[in-house]
Structure prediction request, 414 residues.
Amino acid sequence: MGEILLVTIQVDMHDRLATALQDDLANRISVTRARGVLIDISALDVVDSFIARMFGDIAQMARVLDAETVLVGMQPSVAITLVEMGVAMTGVRTALNVEKGMALLRARMDEERADDDAPAE
Amino acid sequence: MATMKTRIAEVLERNEAEILSDWMKEQATALTQRPDLMKESELRQQSTRFLKLFREAIAAGNNLIDIQQPIWEPVREFIGEVSRSRAIQGFSPSETATFVLSLKQPLFTRLRKIHEGQPDYLFEDLWNVTVLLDKLGLYSVEVFQKTREDVIGRQQKEMFELSTPVVELWQGILGLPIIGTLDSKRSQLVMETLLQRLAETQSEVAVIDITGVPVMDTVTAQHLLKTVTATRLMGADCIISGIRPQIAQTIVHLGVNLGDVTTKASMAGALAVAFKRMGLAVGPARRQSGETA
Prediction:
């Protein structure tokens, strides 16, 4: 979707799938030169600490490749579980749904473009 | 045992009417009588029925003082019924127990009459009747207490449900006024309801108002922080408002780090921040040109 990659997770994540996703995503970001990654986890009912850490890793990795990651549509039960586990996921941005996540990414890109344009003038 | 059983049953059977009237008198003179709560006719009805069941149980049973036996089932059931209704009507525990215990005197008087000159028998019977009636009295108090506890439990549950209303202040802004102490059970509920409503309404900002929270300790602060973190994970933002001066002091004294949580003194302030975040503005309404003329 333009400069944004959209990842929708539909099945229960298990560890191997998570690492596969991580690899795949890194490749896709560099191939497509995406500026934003949107991960939709609204279908995910269970998240363990490994998966949570993986999301953090993906966000960091994407940042290295100059892309912003937004996690969208987290279920209330998942949020509670993560908080109880003490996982705050500070490095990851979140949004309520895909639309809002997209808006967030767009706003950030516009900002960057404005920054880029500014010194040239 | 058998002889004693028949003796008491006989006394009860022969003098039922007399015992009943004495018992009624006894209950009427007792300080625990509550004419304001219960009519005399109703009391008489209850007394008659209890006496009948009591007599039947004694006549049929072979172990007089074990009220757990199935033979005492009707009596226990009846006492349970009476105690429950009295608990709801507003009687005190002793008033309820007196219903059973006041049967002692009329019964003892009769026993004394037929055992004149036989102190051994008299003592044996009195002792057994005392033990029996005491047990029944205690049982009635137990039922009474249980009924009260049920009422308290139900009220607690109702209060619990009422205590976490999530209101929509504006489209996309949820308000959560918390009133009363935040313990872990309640804050769990607060968190769950808030997140649930966030997901339902897709609201971007939540305002937690703690004006009604009387005291703040580290645990409460911890719970609040957890709620804020969870709303952030969901992709929404959380503002805490209504922090009173004392609570602000406590937070600083306790060394609780509220971190980058937005806090506002009043709900109005929080609402203004929420509007700003959502790109909304509230200004004075412009008057129509027709009105000013």
